[in-house]
Amino acid sequence: MADAARRISAGVSRLAATGHEVRQVAYKAAPEWLTLSIVAAFTEWAEGEAATCQHRPTVAQPEPVFAAAWMPGLIVCAQCTDRLALPAGSVRDRTCDACGHICAGPAHADPIWAKTVVAGLLVYQIGVCRDCLPWRAS
Length: 138
Fold this sequence. Notes:
Elements: H1 2-17, E1 21-22, H2 32-46, E2 51-52, E3 65-68, E4 74-77, E5 113-119, E6 122-128
Parallel strand pairs: 1-5, 2-4, 3-6
Antiparallel strand pairs: 3-4, 5-6
C-alpha cells in the first residue's frame, strides 16, 4: 500500500506541476455532478468497460489510476497521464466540465480552473469555470 501511495503522490505532483490545484476536500463537500462522474469512472473501470492505456491497469491488481472528466471512459496509469491532455487553449481545454461554458481565458478574467480530486486509487481531473468551482482557493 505504501508503494501505491508513493505512486499516487508522484502522479499528483506531476499534475500539480502543470497547474492543477490539488486540495483535500471532504467527500460530502463535492458537488453531485463531480461525485457521480467519479463513481461512474471507477465503476466502468472496475467492470472492465473503460478503455485503458497500454499498461492495462485493473482493479484485480490495484495501482493508482488517472481519469479526466473531459475524456469519459478512459483510465490510464501514472506513466500515461499525457493521454489525458488536451491541446492547450483549444475549445475543449477551455470548456467547463460542469456546465459546458467555454471560458474566454485569463486575459478576459474568465479562466478555466484545473482541479484534481483523489478518490482512493483514482486521481480524477476536472476543468471548471469560476461559477462551478467545487471549492474556492483560501
